[in-house]
Amino acid sequence: MDGVDKGRRIIASLAILALVVVVAVLSFSDRTAKPMQINGDMLGQDSSETAAEYAQRAAASVAEAPDGEHAYSLVSFAQPLSPADAAELLEGIDRVNAMIMLSAPAMDLPEPIAGETREDVFNRQIMLVDAQLSGIGNVRAPAELNGVVVWETPEKVRHLAENPLVFSVETLPPDAAWGGFGVRPVDI
């Protein structure tokens, strides 16, 4: 019996030693020791780009997008738009997935339900943000949108890009999946 306990102690000690060695080796791996690179597509202005450089890059992405295939596009407005003006501008767009206010992260949006308009959806999201900010001094949600992320064909977003209310439109490849890319606001 004493020999069995001694054997178990030796096996347990070797297992702990092996675990310590594995942890030590993995701590030098690039996968754990260094920050991970951004994995996925990004919409929006790079921190090193001027607004003009971004607008040029965004226009090229729309020009190169394959016709007839839906893709996600970031539509940045030339100036902040009211929910009514934004809804009017986006009339005929298949899907508005998110809205951007100031430099806040893009906020996911549902589609309007029966009897609602996109303006109602925008206003409801603004009221939700305002409610979340209540109690933080006199901070209020802006009542205007700086941009939106849409799901549409390049033909329709090219037409949208020609509107003077739109500063830029940037389109991702058609294989980009919702939730698999980042969105940075555009600083005009």
Task: Label the structural class.
Answer: alpha+beta
Number of domains: 2
The helix count comes to 6
Q: Would you count the extended β strands for me?
A: 7
Task: Sum up the overall morphology in one term.
Answer: elongated
User: Which H/E pattern describes the elements?
Assistant: HHEHEHEEHEHEE
Summarize the biggest pleated sheet. Answer: 5 strands, antiparallel
Distance between the termini: 79 Å
**Uncertain regions: pLDDT < 50 for 5+ in a row?**
none
- How much is the radius of gyration in Å? 25 Å
Helix content: 25-40%
Quote the beta fraction.
15-25%
User: What number is the mean pLDDT?
Assistant: 87
Strand order of the largest sheet: 4-3-5-2-6
Set down the secondary structure blueprint.
Elements: H1 2-26, H2 30-33, E1 41-43, H3 51-64, E2 71-81, H4 83-89, E3 95-100, E4 107-108, H5 118-133, E5 145-152, H6 154-161, E6 166-171, E7 181-183
Parallel strand pairs: 1-7
Antiparallel strand pairs: 2-5, 2-6, 3-4, 3-5
Short key terms for the protein model shown above:
single chain; 188 residues; alpha+beta; 5-stranded antiparallel sheet; 6 helices; 39% helix
